[in-house]
Design goal:
Elements lengths: L18 H15 L4 E6 L17 E3 L3 E3 L2 E8 L11 E9 L4 E4 L7 E7 L6 E6 L5 E6 L7 H4 L12 H9 L5 H7 L8 H11 L12 H20 L40 E5 L2 E5 L15
Antiparallel strand pairs: 1-7, 2-4, 3-4, 4-5, 5-9, 6-8, 7-8, 10-11
Helix pairs in contact: 1-6, 3-6, 5-6
The structure holds a DNA duplex (16 and 16 nucleotides).
Length: about 300
DNA sequence: CGCATTTCCTGGTAGC
DNA sequence: TGCTACCAGGAAATGC
């Protein structure tokens, strides 16, 4: 419905949850889920496979926390029912890993379609968690704590963009090692975790860096500017509960309002808010990429020296 | 190992 | 109207 709601025409329609959207979800889930014990968990409308692996291990485990690393939600679990010590320390548990992918939604009410996982919890209503995922790019997996062998991106994840470990020095080190286009490296999650297509374009525009510039060619000033831009754009978006392009909603069904702050993403052919030059949309690494050709000049080709 | 390419998946939409 | 073709995109799998 409401095909034109005043939103910029992105031609995109999906949620595309990145760090701010996942953080918004995390904050809503924490108070609801922490301390609760799983009674039952089942896969619904989804084929068997690694994306929903380990659900049978959930019953009997208690959710200890709702954490986030990049775009991954990590829920450490504990087994409270070890024989003997009823009041003793909880036994070592597993870890529930949730990734929203493109269209994943964690809900307290049943969706009308595309339900993938249902989890029943002990305690007061609402006591059922529903994981809905139209395009099945998401994940809902239980693994032994810290065993990320089936999640290579999580295993090699860089520091979270909003964590104190994400320092300019660490960022510079990661960039120096890579010949990839800076935007492609950002999307890989290896140099920094949590930046996706929208915020990569926004941060690079803020920092005045062309997305195709090889990562190792960023000088100190550009590295610092990009580091600062990533933190700023993500923090501003978290404060507004993220960006709703179309489908994304907070757990309480609200829209995120960072959409109106987007400078380039979804604004191809419109004037750059800083200089007025027409914003271009190109394809980089199979991803739609928005760039102001004046604010983000293409890197000059390196001169050969004899 | 590093990097590029392909695959997964469905709803919306352009074009006829 | 109804059909086909195509597109969006994060992470995993595959291919050098």
């Amino acid at each position: 419905m409401a095909p034109s709601s005043g939103a910029p025409c992105t031609k995109g329609r999906s949620a595309i949850p990145e760090l701010p959207e996942v953080e918004t979800v995390r904050r809503a889930l924490g108070p609801w889920l922490c301390g609760r014990t799983v009674i039952a968990a089942e896969r619904v409308e989804a084929p068997p496979g690694p994306k929903y692996a380990g659900l049978e291990r959930l019953p009997g485990q208690r959710i200890e926390a709702v954490l986030r690393r990049g775009k991954f939600l990590l829920l450490p679990l504990s087994r409270a029912d070890r024989s003997g010590s009823a009041a003793g320390a909880p036994g070592p548990g597993d870890e529930l890993i949730v990734h929203l992918g493109m269209t994943g939604v964690v809900r307290r009410t049943p969706p009308d379609a595309h339900l993938r996982v249902r989890v029943r919890l002990a305690g007061p209503e609402p006591s059922t968690l529903y994981f809905q995922d139209v395009r099945r790019f998401g994940r809902f997996t239980v693994v032994p704590s810290g065993d990320y062998r089936t999640l290579p991106t999580l295993a090699a994840l860089g520091p979270d963009a909003l964590a104190s470990e994400f320092t300019v020095a660490a960022f510079a080190r990661a960039l120096r090692r890579s010949a990839m286009a800076i935007k492609t490296l950002l999307l890989s999650q290896r140099a920094v975790a949590g930046v996706g297509n929208i915020y990569a374009d926004e941060a690079l525009w803020r920092a005045g860096i062309h997305p195709e510039r090889p990562a190792r060619q960023l000088d100190r000033a550009r590295v610092a500017a990009l580091h600062q831009a990533i933190g700023a754009v993500l923090e501003e978006s978290v404060a507004l509960q993220g960006t709703t392009l179309h489908d994304y909603r907070t757990v309480d069904g609200e829209v995120g309002s960072f959409l109106e702050r987007l400078a380039v993403y979804g604004h191809a052919w419109e004037p750059c808010p800083r200089c007025g030059t027409t914003i271009e949309k190109v394809v980089l690494g199979q991803r739609g990429t928005h760039v102001c050709p004046r604010c983000q000049p293409r890197p000059r080709r390196r001169r050969h020296r004899a």
